[in-house]
């Protein structure tokens, strides 16, 4: 997808890299993340109006420290380094970085020394007709510091622990920050990034969902021509929005295929089919392939194998169904930007978090060409897109549901019996959260079936049955998440109902882990 106003983020491994791109996009300027070692030709092809160097866990003086092509500093465009990115700029442009006498993690007070374009308007206070910068709270996370800044640079801010907490080469429009402006803990972080994007890079806020729809619809029509498209519907928000967007572009050339893979939520197939037919009059082919999928998953407990088996089987099903549709040449699916990011680490596949079912599970000999119209969007952007397309809240506000479905919430082997147990437990979790009026406050809530059994007493008899974990998190885009503090009364009701109503469960636990370090899903 082509946008003229673009900011490139080079990823050096920070857990906050995705947040940088999100914060830029919030200003209606398109931003994309590429690995630090991307070629200079690829960067020129992308044609950004500015480059942001992310943070990262390395030290620039390490032997295997990740370093970009030095030509990025000769492109004649503004560059902003954040944390490791700042140290990297100093290291590569003639300065010196060393281990700090005292590490600096968490909140710090930033004192601004120079009213540069980057820090303009930050913490300004007016008194007796005089304007001055007041200290502002920033978020630090570093163990190194700038000992000598490069020629052409000058310090523009400091903290008690960092004499050079920000620096600038105003002539070349190079700026660097030791703190993280992208995180919520930095008071004026958004203002800092806006200064870089608008005042320094001179970007215009042209990237909106309306423009995204217009551009994407045009590209889909150009690519597809008169051919037909098969769209994969999983029951989640992503695939539903993909289907509606494709429908907007090519109408009756689209056939949606909803596959019941045996690991869906309770009543999923009927609910999705009814919603899309009722609101958008779309062609939907519902395929019952539960037995087929469960047979393939038999005795498989490795989550990566589950993902690939389900991804491959989906493609097999689609290809079989597509044969019945004359001139079907394309498969559309709801891959999102976080799916792509989590499947391609800045260090390569060896450091990958997980393969995504849409990214890592495709067949090498897939006969249908792939269309992924949401590939550049974050989850919350997909919801905005859905509303712009006129989709009802009952679809848009649904909690995210993974493509591999309940298979990656059944820890261990997937069987028809275990799938039924989890399906019932999961339904109770959602029912009670909705009943308590908490559904829209929670990003995602679900049940997980654990691969252990515990002793219990039910009806004066000793039992040895399954454990169900309840997971509920709050998030903005799924890249980071905190566990939701559900009321004890709601948790109590969920636990009582699952144990009393779901045969084979005698214990319920509540997951209180955040992302990071945990992921939202258990597998």
- Number of helical segments? 14
Structural class: alpha/beta
CATH level 1 class label of the largest domain = Alpha Beta
What's the CATH H-level superfamily name of the largest domain? Class I glutamine amidotransferase (GATase) domain
Radius of gyration, in angstroms, nearest whole number: 25 Å
Number of strands: 20
| Span between termini | 32 Å
Query: Mean of the pLDDT scores?
Result: 87
As a percent range, the share of strand residues is 25-35%
Main beta sheet, described?
9 strands, mixed
Low-confidence stretches: 345-363
What is the domain total for the residues?
3
Looking at the overall shape, the CATH architecture of the largest domain is 3-Layer(aba) Sandwich
Helix amount:
25-40%
The CATH topology of the largest domain is Rossmann fold
| Approximate shape | globular
* Oligomerization state: single chain
What order do the strands of the largest sheet run in, or round the barrel if closed?
A: 2-1-3-4-11-10-9-5-8
In brief:
The protein is built from 14 helices and 20 strands.
Question: What are the salient characteristics of this protein?
Answer:
Rossmann fold; 523 residues; globular; 31% helix; GMP Synthetase, Chain A, domain 3; 3 domains; alpha/beta
Task: Report on the architecture of this protein.
The structure is a single chain. α1 links the parallel β1 (6-11) and β2 (30-35). The chain is built from 14 helices and 20 strands. By secondary structure, it is α/β, with parallel strands linked by helices. The model is unreliable at 345-363 (pLDDT under 50). The chain has helices at residues 17-25, 40-46, 84-92, 189-200, 209-224, 237-250, 268-280, 290-297, 303-322, 337-343, 379-388, 393-396, 416-435, 488-501, and strands at residues 6-11, 30-35, 50-53, 79-82, 96-112, 124-127, 130-133, 136-148, 154-158, 166-169, 174-177, 228-233, 254-260, 284-288, 328-332, 369-371, 444-458, 461-474, 482-483, 505-510. α5 packs across α6. The protein folds into three domains: 6-200, Class I glutamine amidotransferase (GATase) domain (Rossmann fold); 209-396, HUPs (Rossmann fold), CATH 3.40.50; 410-510, GMP Synthetase, Chain A, domain 3, CATH 3.30.300.10. The chain has a nine-stranded mixed beta sheet with strand order 2-1-3-4-11-10-9-5-8, sandwiched between helices. A five-stranded parallel beta sheet has the order 14-13-12-15-16, with helices on both faces. Strands 17, 18, 19 and 20 form a four-stranded mixed beta sheet that branches. 31% of the residues lie in helices and 26% in strands.
């Amino acid at each position: 997808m082509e946008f003229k106003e673009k900011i490139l983020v080079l990823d050096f491994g920070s857990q906050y890299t995705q947040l940088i791109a999100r914060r830029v996009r919030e200003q209606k300027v398109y931003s994309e993340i590429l690995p630090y070692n991307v070629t200079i030709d690829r960067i020129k092809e992308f044609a950004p109006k500015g480059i942001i160097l992310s943070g990262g866990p390395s030290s620039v003086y390490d032997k295997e420290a990740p370093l970009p092509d030095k030509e990025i500093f000769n492109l004649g465009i503004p560059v902003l380094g954040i944390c490791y990115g700042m140290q990297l700029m100093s290291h590569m442009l003639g300065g010196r970085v060393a281990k700090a006498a005292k590490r600096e993690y968490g909140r710090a007070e930033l004192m601004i020394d120079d009213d540069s374009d980057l820090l303009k308007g930050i913490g300004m206070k007016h008194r007796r007709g005089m304007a001055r910068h007041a200290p502002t709270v920033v978020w630090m996370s570093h163990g190194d510091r700038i000992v000598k800044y490069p020629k052409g640079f000058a310090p523009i801010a400091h903290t008690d622990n960092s004499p050079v907490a920000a620096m600038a080469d105003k002539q070349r429009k190079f700026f660097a920050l030791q703190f993280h402006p992208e995180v919520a803990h930095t008071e004026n972080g958004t203002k800092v990034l806006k200064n870089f994007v608008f005042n320094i890079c001179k970007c215009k806020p042209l990237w909106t969902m309306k423009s995204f729809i217009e551009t994407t619809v045009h590209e889909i029509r150009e690519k597809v021509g008169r051919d037909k498209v098969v769209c994969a519907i999983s029951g989640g928000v992503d695939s539903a929005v993909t289907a509606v967007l494709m429908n907007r572009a090519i109408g009756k050339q689209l056939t949606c295929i909803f596959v019941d893979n045996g690991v869906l939520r309770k009543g999923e197939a009927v609910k999705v089919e009814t919603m899309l037919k009722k609101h958008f009059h779309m062609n939907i082919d519902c395929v019952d392939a539960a037995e087929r999928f469960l047979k393939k998953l038999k005795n498989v407990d490795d989550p990566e194998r589950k993902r690939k088996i389900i991804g491959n089987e989906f493609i097999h099903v689609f290809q079989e169904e597509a044969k019945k549709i004359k001139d079907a040449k394309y498969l559309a699916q709801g891959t999102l930007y976080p799916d792509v990011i989590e499947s391609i680490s800045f260090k390569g596949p060896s450091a990958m978090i997980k393969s995504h079912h849409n990214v890592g599970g495709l067949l090498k000999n897939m006969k249908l060409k792939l269309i992924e119209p949401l590939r550049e969007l974050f989850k919350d952007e997909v919801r905005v897109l859905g509303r712009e397309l006129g989709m009802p809240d009952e679809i848009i506000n649904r909690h995210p549901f993974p493509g591999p479905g309940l298979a990656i919430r059944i820890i261990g082997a997937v069987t028809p019996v275990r799938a039924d147990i989890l399906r019932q437990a999961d339904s109770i979790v959602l029912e009670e959260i909705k009943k308590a009026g908490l559904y829209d406050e929670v990003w995602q809530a679900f049940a997980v079936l654990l691969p252990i059994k515990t002793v219990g007493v039910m009806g004066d008899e000793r039992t040895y049955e399954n454990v169900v974990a309840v997971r509920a998190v709050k998030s903005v885009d799924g890249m980071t998440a905190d566990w939701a503090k559900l009321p004890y009364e709601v948790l109590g009701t969920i636990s009582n109902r699952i144990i009393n109503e779901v045969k084979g469960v005698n214990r319920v636990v509540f997951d209180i882990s955040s992302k990071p370090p945990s992921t939202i899903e258990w597998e």
